[in-house]
Amino acid sequence: MFDNLSDKLDKAMHVLKGHGSITEVNVAETLKEVRRALLDADVNFKIAKEFTNTVKEKALGQDVLTALQPSQLMVKIVKDELTKLMGGDAAGINLQGTPSVILMSGLQGSGKTTFSGKLANFLKSKKSKKPLLVACDVYRPAAINQLHIVGDQIGVEVYSEEGNMDPVSIATNAIAHAKQNGHNVVIVDTAGRLAVDEVMMTEIENVHKAINPQETLFVVDAMTGQDAVNTAKTFNERLNFDGVVLTKLDGDTRGGAAISIKSVVNKPIKFIGTGEKMDAIDIFYPSRMADRILGMGDVVSLVERAQEQFDEEEARKLQKKIAKNQFGFDDFMKQIQQIKKMGSMKDLVGMIPGAGKALKDVEIDDDAFKGIEAIIQSMTPEERTKPVLINGSRKKRIAKGSGTSVTQVNQLLKQFDQMSKMMKMMQGGGGRKMAQMMGKMK
Questions:
Q1: Extents of the domains making up the chain
Q2: pLDDT tens across 40-55, in order?
Q3: Which pTM does this prediction carry?
Q4: Which run of H or of E encompasses 220?
Q5: Domain 3-85 classified CATH 1.20.120.140?
Q6: CATH number of 303-441: 2.60.120.760, 1.10.10.410, 1.10.260.30, 3.20.20.140?
């Protein structure tokens, strides 16, 4: 996500490195590169020009503090202005009403149906809501089937009417069904077209008038760049929607839509889709996205994801095991499972400051733990509890059973041993001992 833009902005900031002050000349050179980077990312020319003009004005109007270098000050100004351009603060979703009605709009292929499922899953698991998904795409039987499959996957009821070709009556009947069955959120998935047309716009306007939703969301594929922004403009003129959802931000997207859509339609980006799984949905935080675009990572989101998987009771049990030197491979496996639940590995690495840049050419597979898991699963319960039992013949058996080599088994055992010692020292607060340990590990 935004790899090319991050690289180009980083190079632009390098222009100021080594300069003792910010001047008209070096700022002009830097901002020329910034503007070029934004245009390459498919940001509208007018927005890119206005953005760099604002940054220039602010940069020249500030004295460089002794604690900052000119390049650091420029990064701060660019980060603040990027945050402002993308909306400033995170925008919440309106869940008033009994039930709250959310209307999904957008073109065919934008990821509307999948995102409807993700949103239902998010509201059910994070907001303790009881959502109802409504299939109002009457033209594509595949869309209705897809919504039912998604609903089964996340344990959410899907309302559809076989043979009814009127989305207005389906939506109004669904709301009545929700009231009778205790659903407090209704998510209406509507039909999309391959392009904006009058029939489509009139139909969704009619659904909108009939159900008067608390929240109308426009779902757009981030990979379509400026086309996404232009489509958003057309939809907004007819629907006056409340917010934007950017899908497929995990793909090879240039990022132009994320940066300029708020400026064009004056509506906030509320959510982003970051993968194919049903939990791959994030609230859009402009400041965190600006950090990631500038290669600063996103530690806050990383910590939040870790906390979601954190189980206090399990942590207490783990502490006791570490204290008694009983930390085994079963415990290690549990930790791996928790990390995997946090999201795709590439996305997680991108949240670590500097890591995204350092590993940008490294292919980070979501199956990164597969070999480790296979080795652990090939051990006997006794071996997992007492790794010291694993001798040469056992290593051969484990390697054969896991489809790995003895070298890989040895490597895992060594890493596990070092990690166990380190955890034991951290537990006892032995900072000096730990420093000595780390010295030995090098």
A1: 3-85, 100-296, 303-441
A2: 777 878 888 888 888 8
A3: 0.66
A4: strand 215-221
A5: yes
A6: 1.10.260.30
